[in-house]
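Problem: given the chain below (200 residues), write out its structure.
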Amino acid sequence: MPAMCKNSLPIYSNLLEADYAPMPPLSWDELRSFAYQTVENWERGNCLSAADLTAALNFMKYNIPSADIKYVSNREIPICYFSHVVPKSADMLQILLAVEGIKSCQMPIVQASDGYFDLELDDNHKILIFTIPQYNHLNSFKEFLKIIQAKKLNILVGGNVFYLKPSLKLDFSNCIFPNNIKDILPLINKINSSASEEKV
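Solution.
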């Protein structure tokens, strides 16, 4: 995720203190268009303030339940992060997946002082998505990968640290690094398609 500026766009600033209740709910097409427009502004990094992004995320979350989204599967893809605080990237990704009919769940991974990770993965999970927004999360990520290496998982990874220092990707050769947040969608579809073909 590129750094965000201090400017504010009217489309988002008008949502900062808005009361959503009187507003007509967004249709699926409108919500999808708004989500992709927000992603485009977010990735450009020069026209979206932190307050704008928060307003946009809250507005989209409010509209998801009424958007009549048709989900392709009831299985949720975990969006993982090593923090008690939900990264904005996790919120954005969950919304983007939702408007494309893909269910996901946010999965914070907390490492105890003894190194133990308080997380149990269902064997039905085939894909894990990680967002790594801070450098101090890299060590926990490395340790967690050692624990789950025996599982047959497709690990999709992104985050600010890899955007700012792409060479860090070389330390995680078994992971898949989408070029941007939108590239996660075709990768998920490709993985699911391959898994379906193996079952036939």
